[in-house]
UniProtKB/TrEMBL annotation:
Listed Gene3D superfamilies: Kelch-type beta propeller (2.120.10.80), Laminin (2.10.25.10), Spermadhesin, CUB domain (2.60.120.290)
Disulfide linkage: C36-C63
The keyword Repeat appears for this protein: yes
Phosphoprotein among keywords: no
Ranges of residues in domain CUB: 36-146
Top-level division of the source organism's lineage: Eukaryota
Keyword annotations of the record: Disulfide bond, Kelch repeat, Repeat, Signal
Cross-referenced InterPro entries: Beta-prop_ATRN-MKLN-like, CUB_dom, EGF, Kelch-typ_b-propeller, LZTR1/Attractin, Sperma_CUB_dom_sf
GO cellular component: Golgi apparatus
Protein name per its UniProtKB record: CUB domain-containing protein
Signal sequence extent: 1-30
Amino acid sequence: MATWLLLPSGAGALLVPLLLAWCVSGPAAAKPSDTCNRHRKILTAPWGIITDGNDSYRNDSHCEWLIRANSSKLYITLRFHEMATECAYDHVFVYDGDSYSSPLLGTFSGESIPPPVIATSGSMLILLYSDTNYVLKGFVAEYSITQCPSNCSNHGSCGRDSCVCDLAWTGPDCSTPVCPSSCHADQGQGNCSFPCTTTSPPGSSEIPNCCRCSHGFAGISCSLPENPNDSAAGWHLLSRGGGPFAARAGHAGVYLPFTDQLFVFGGRAFGRVLGDFLVYNFNESAWHDLTDVRPRPAARWGHAMAPYAHTIALHGGELTNGSLSSELWLYNVAKRDWTLELPSPAGHYPPAVALHSLTPGDGNHLYVFGGRTAGGVFSDALYRVNPRNGTQWERVAYVGSVPPSVGHAAVFHAESRSLLVHGGVVVDYARFSKLSSALWAFHVDANRWTRLQRTPLGGEAPTERAFHAAALVGGYMVLFGGYMHKHSFEEKCFDDGIYLYHLRCHKWVSFKLIAGDLLVPRLWSTLMPATWASVLYSSNGWTVSSV
């Protein structure tokens, strides 16, 4: 999956088997005139259209399509043209094979058009599943069976079941330019050096990138300048993914300005819990695998990471066996080693949680708030620990109340000496859960919770959300993304918006209006900064194509 960076306008601005008979299609798959309902079809034509019907699909139902080529060496490409299902409840599953035990290629939900999906086994199984709730229009997709992926996208030739790409193109289907935007060579930002190869081992999914960036520029097309200006405003693609950095969600990452590197640990992908430790080097615009460092934390997802002094702190998460971890690990960048920080017997036992927040505070303390505990219970507990002073954990006895929460975003505002917590999935009445848009401040000296900005102002405030990211940019708290679906109101699963909260005026303000005025050196948190200027990094995460 890709790693993106957003650079706003303004110089220096930083910033997801029933036993029924199969129906075999004719020479081409025609669009049905009625809505499918627990139907199964086998499609053998070299091209066709797949859809649930002209009207909305039915609730509490499912439909299946099996695309079967006449050889296991042929490729099947599925391209979606329309997509509208109840977010997070009704899904389209796509498998590389003819059964549910085949590799899962993607799980799609919501109203965003999924990317093309390619099966390499000669068969592709597609399942539309709906629950008992309301329904939407469904989907329309086009499939094709070819000897090579996507017929090499007209940028290469097909030989022995694989593409031989033209000189300027790469990838399994020759759809990716080896030098995107010519590496901005006309602006002196880089040069195209091909043919080039990847440093990953044979069989890797990494797509070679032949751009060699000039000093002070980064990204797959050398588009990101160290000293940004208005012409550089917008998102910059830093990595296509693949290679060491496989598609994932539920991972955690930290950017360290003194090394100019982004570190990522763990996550999960299609049911697998990952334990790899990866670093993105901005000077090389490349990922490197640090997993061989031992000892190291066990594989996990839903954990939290934060910068701490000149180290990286990692806490909690769900392990491969489903248990929750209470471990606190520190990674020493200079020594390239992990240390398990055993809790002092004089303090509290550290919490075993996942989907919580870990936030560096006043330079000494790390704060752990909320998360999911054993049995799926949401927590409202707040802990702090000073690893420099014997790793003695303290459960903070605070004044005021804050709802138990998972998937919230948190930052520490030094000027007000407050831990700011936004959104998340919170406990409602009768132990039901709901998304939240509340912003809370924990004052570390008074040990008091206060709710900020109860009334959203205009359209500038973010709606309820969880699993988003937050960072500090000058006098603003910046939010990005998150899960935001509201039944029968907003069918958008995930948000791509940027929202700013003015920390002195205590109100939400327009990102477009003030982006050019944000002149600050750096930011931190899940949205990670660079020393180049103030920039926001988005590395993978929960997407409409769930992993």
